[in-house]
Amino acid sequence: MPKVPTDPESAPAPFQLTALDREILSQTDEEYISHDWENLKDIIATNSLHLFKRKPSDLANYISWSTAIKSLYGTITNYICLERLRWPLNLDPATQCVDPTPFADSRDYRILRNDWPYGVTPDISHLVVWVKNAIPVDEQTGGDLTPESRTSIDEFVHRTFVVRLEEEFPDAKARVMWFKNWTALQSVRSLEHIHVLVRGVPDEIIFEWTGEPARKLSDPTVGLENAPIPTPVV
């Protein structure tokens, strides 16, 4: 297993740290206040997505992990395509999508657990839907979704997540939220994805959606368990 640095201050960060990131890194996990469901609802409803944050230890480990992954694979996108999605690099939606419409064919997207979720309360699970298709955004608004894209995602989330939960819970719709970071906030910009948050959902159902068990958090070697040490991709 490749060695992963444990001190995020010992080397340049693999991405630009925000003022909020630096504030979080100055805290202990005991001082950190987790996002609860109501707080998440407010952030998403007001589109204040820059306020999402990770637990201090998770953020420090995420920085170290990102540094290690980039040294091994060149980019986070390369790692995700090769190791998590098993999709080809340099994905071309025009030739490699079964259906040109986003979310229309299950072979064109994959649902996974977020390896590095935001710092939420334990009742909340954070999933990511990776999509081969391009999802139209409005560049005039900093890369926010177009109304048509928002409707398309709403419909996908309803039929994929809400309908399944309706089999178990009378308040299924209230247990699901989604968001898509503006382009400027995305850590993996070249690979389309949306975030889905679910509350109080048994892990068995999470497994149905993702096909993978829960992964240990606060571990800078997540995703590196079986990683080779290849020549860095440039």
From TrEMBL:
InterPro entries: DUF3605 (IPR022036). GO terms for biological process: N-acetylglucosamine metabolic process. It comes from the Eukaryota. Pfam families: DUF3605. Signal peptide: none annotated. One of its GO terms (cellular component) is cytoplasm. PANTHER family: N-ACETYLGLUCOSAMINE-INDUCED PROTEIN 1. This is N-acetylglucosamine-induced protein 1.
